[in-house]
Protein backbone atom coordinates (compact mmCIF):
# COMPACT_ATOMS: atom_id res chain seq x y z
CA UNK A 1 0.00 0.00 0.00
CA UNK A 2 1.30 3.35 -0.93
CA UNK A 3 1.17 6.47 1.15
CA UNK A 4 -1.61 7.86 -1.06
CA UNK A 5 -3.73 4.75 -0.42
CA UNK A 6 -3.15 4.99 3.33
CA UNK A 7 -4.05 8.70 3.26
CA UNK A 8 -7.25 7.96 1.34
CA UNK A 9 -8.18 5.18 3.83
CA UNK A 10 -7.48 7.49 6.80
CA UNK A 11 -9.53 10.31 5.24
CA UNK A 12 -12.36 7.85 4.53
CA UNK A 13 -12.31 6.62 8.15
CA UNK A 14 -12.25 10.23 9.38
CA UNK A 15 -15.21 11.13 7.14
CA UNK A 16 -17.20 8.11 8.42
CA UNK A 17 -16.47 9.05 12.05
CA UNK A 18 -17.47 12.67 11.36
CA UNK A 19 -20.70 11.58 9.65
CA UNK A 20 -21.55 9.25 12.56
CA UNK A 21 -20.95 12.04 15.08
CA UNK A 22 -23.14 14.42 13.07
CA UNK A 23 -25.94 11.84 12.91
CA UNK A 24 -25.70 11.27 16.68
CA UNK A 25 -25.73 15.03 17.30
CA UNK A 26 -28.79 15.38 15.02
CA UNK A 27 -30.54 12.56 16.90
CA UNK A 28 -29.75 14.20 20.26
CA UNK A 29 -31.01 17.57 19.04
CA UNK A 30 -34.21 15.99 17.72
CA UNK A 31 -34.84 14.32 21.10
CA UNK A 32 -34.18 17.64 22.85
CA UNK A 33 -36.67 19.42 20.58
CA UNK A 34 -39.31 16.72 21.17
CA UNK A 35 -38.75 17.00 24.93
CA UNK A 36 -39.02 20.79 24.79
CA UNK A 37 -42.26 20.58 22.79
CA UNK A 38 -43.77 18.07 25.23
CA UNK A 39 -42.69 20.20 28.21
CA UNK A 40 -44.14 23.33 26.62
CA UNK A 41 -47.47 21.59 26.00
CA UNK A 42 -47.58 20.31 29.58
CA UNK A 43 -46.66 23.73 30.96
CA UNK A 44 -49.42 25.41 28.92
CA UNK A 45 -51.96 22.91 30.22
CA UNK A 46 -50.71 23.36 33.79
CA UNK A 47 -50.71 27.15 33.36
CA UNK A 48 -54.44 27.07 32.64
CA UNK A 49 -55.05 25.08 35.84
CA UNK A 50 -52.81 27.41 37.85
CA UNK A 51 -54.57 30.46 36.38
CA UNK A 52 -57.93 29.11 37.58
CA UNK A 53 -56.41 28.45 40.99
CA UNK A 54 -54.99 31.97 41.21
CA UNK A 55 -58.36 33.45 40.20
CA UNK A 56 -60.06 31.39 42.89
CA UNK A 57 -57.58 32.43 45.57
CA UNK A 58 -57.94 36.09 44.58
CA UNK A 59 -61.71 35.79 44.79
CA UNK A 60 -61.46 34.20 48.24
CA UNK A 61 -59.09 36.96 49.33
CA UNK A 62 -61.57 39.61 48.12
CA UNK A 63 -64.38 37.88 50.03
CA UNK A 64 -62.22 37.83 53.15
CA UNK A 65 -61.49 41.54 52.82
CA UNK A 66 -65.19 42.30 52.28
CA UNK A 67 -66.08 40.40 55.44
CA UNK A 68 -63.78 42.62 57.47
CA UNK A 69 -60.79 40.28 57.42
CA UNK A 70 -62.60 37.50 59.21
CA UNK A 71 -62.05 33.99 57.91
CA UNK A 72 -65.64 32.84 58.24
CA UNK A 73 -67.11 29.80 56.59
CA UNK A 74 -69.65 31.92 54.76
CA UNK A 75 -66.98 34.23 53.36
CA UNK A 76 -64.83 31.35 52.11
CA UNK A 77 -67.57 28.96 50.93
CA UNK A 78 -67.97 28.19 47.25
CA UNK A 79 -70.89 29.87 45.64
CA UNK A 80 -71.65 26.84 43.51
CA UNK A 81 -70.10 24.38 46.02
CA UNK A 82 -67.89 22.90 43.31
CA UNK A 83 -64.24 23.53 42.61
CA UNK A 84 -62.82 22.12 39.42
CA UNK A 85 -59.22 21.48 38.47
CA UNK A 86 -58.35 19.78 35.23
CA UNK A 87 -60.07 18.24 32.24
CA UNK A 88 -61.69 15.39 34.18
CA UNK A 89 -64.06 17.89 35.79
CA UNK A 90 -65.24 19.14 32.40
CA UNK A 91 -66.82 15.78 31.56
CA UNK A 92 -70.57 15.64 32.19
CA UNK A 93 -71.63 13.38 35.01
CA UNK A 94 -73.77 10.39 34.00
CA UNK A 95 -77.48 10.73 34.72
CA UNK A 96 -77.39 7.46 36.63
CA UNK A 97 -74.29 7.00 38.75
CA UNK A 98 -74.80 3.23 38.76
CA UNK A 99 -75.22 2.98 34.97
CA UNK A 100 -71.71 1.60 34.53
CA UNK A 101 -72.43 -1.43 36.72
CA UNK A 102 -73.92 -4.57 35.23
CA UNK A 103 -77.45 -5.28 36.29
CA UNK A 104 -78.04 -8.73 37.84
CA UNK A 105 -80.22 -11.20 36.04
CA UNK A 106 -83.71 -11.41 37.60
CA UNK A 107 -84.18 -14.51 39.65
CA UNK A 108 -87.39 -16.42 39.09
CA UNK A 109 -88.55 -18.62 41.89
CA UNK A 110 -89.53 -22.01 40.57
CA UNK A 111 -92.13 -24.18 42.22
CA UNK A 112 -90.74 -27.31 43.84
CA UNK A 113 -91.34 -30.49 41.87
CA UNK A 114 -94.46 -32.42 42.89
CA UNK A 115 -93.91 -35.28 45.33
CA UNK A 116 -93.47 -38.70 43.77
CA UNK A 117 -96.71 -40.55 43.25
CA UNK A 118 -97.07 -43.94 44.87
CA UNK A 119 -97.73 -46.91 42.61
CA UNK A 120 -101.35 -47.11 41.56
CA UNK A 121 -103.75 -48.68 43.99
CA UNK A 122 -106.60 -50.78 42.57
CA UNK A 123 -109.86 -48.87 42.68
CA UNK A 124 -108.23 -45.37 42.83
CA UNK A 125 -108.16 -43.54 39.52
CA UNK A 126 -104.72 -42.39 38.42
CA UNK A 127 -104.34 -38.62 38.00
CA UNK A 128 -103.51 -37.26 34.57
CA UNK A 129 -99.79 -37.24 33.81
CA UNK A 130 -98.19 -33.98 35.00
CA UNK A 131 -101.23 -32.81 37.00
CA UNK A 132 -100.88 -32.55 40.76
CA UNK A 133 -103.49 -34.39 42.85
CA UNK A 134 -106.09 -32.15 44.48
CA UNK A 135 -105.92 -31.91 48.26
CA UNK A 136 -108.98 -33.20 50.14
CA UNK A 137 -111.42 -30.42 51.00
CA UNK A 138 -111.23 -29.35 54.66
CA UNK A 139 -114.38 -29.15 56.72
CA UNK A 140 -113.68 -25.83 58.48
CA UNK A 141 -110.97 -23.21 58.05
CA UNK A 142 -108.15 -22.97 60.55
CA UNK A 143 -108.64 -20.35 63.30
CA UNK A 144 -106.60 -17.16 62.87
CA UNK A 145 -103.33 -16.96 64.78
CA UNK A 146 -103.47 -14.83 67.96
CA UNK A 147 -102.01 -11.32 67.63
CA UNK A 148 -98.61 -10.81 69.15
CA UNK A 149 -98.18 -7.92 71.54
CA UNK A 150 -95.30 -5.49 71.45
CA UNK A 151 -92.20 -5.83 73.58
CA UNK A 152 -93.19 -3.16 76.11
CA UNK A 153 -96.95 -3.49 75.73
CA UNK A 154 -98.91 -2.45 78.80
CA UNK A 155 -101.66 -4.52 80.26
CA UNK A 156 -105.10 -2.88 80.06
CA UNK A 157 -106.10 -3.74 83.62
CA UNK A 158 -105.40 -1.16 86.33
CA UNK A 159 -104.38 -1.99 89.86
CA UNK A 160 -103.89 0.73 92.51
CA UNK A 161 -101.19 -1.28 94.30
CA UNK A 162 -99.27 -2.08 91.13
CA UNK A 163 -96.62 0.59 90.44
CA UNK A 164 -95.19 -1.06 87.33
CA UNK A 165 -97.47 0.98 85.08
CA UNK A 166 -95.50 4.17 85.80
CA UNK A 167 -93.36 5.35 82.92
CA UNK A 168 -90.31 6.03 85.12
CA UNK A 169 -90.08 2.37 86.04
CA UNK A 170 -90.17 1.06 82.48
CA UNK A 171 -86.85 0.54 80.74
> Element order, helices and strands?
HH
The coarse silhouette is elongated
Helix content: 25-40%
Q: How many strands appear in the DSSP assignment? A: 0
> Ends: how far apart?
119 Å
Q: Quote the beta fraction.
A: under 5%
Describe the structure.
This protein has 171 residues and is mostly helical. It is 40% helix and 0% strand. The longest helix is centred in the first third of the chain and has 64 residues, at 3-66. The chain is elongated. The N and C termini lie far apart (119 Å).
Describe the structure in brief:
With about 170 residues, this protein is mostly helical.
Question: Could you list some keywords that capture this structure?
Answer:
171 residues, mainly alpha, 2 helices, 0% strand
Please write out the topology.
Elements lengths: L2 H64 L6 H4 L95
Amino acid sequence: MSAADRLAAAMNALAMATREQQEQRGLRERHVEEGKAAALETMKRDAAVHARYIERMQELNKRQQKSGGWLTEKALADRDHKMSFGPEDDEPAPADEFASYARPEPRHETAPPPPPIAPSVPGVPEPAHGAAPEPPPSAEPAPPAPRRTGRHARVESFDDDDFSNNSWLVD
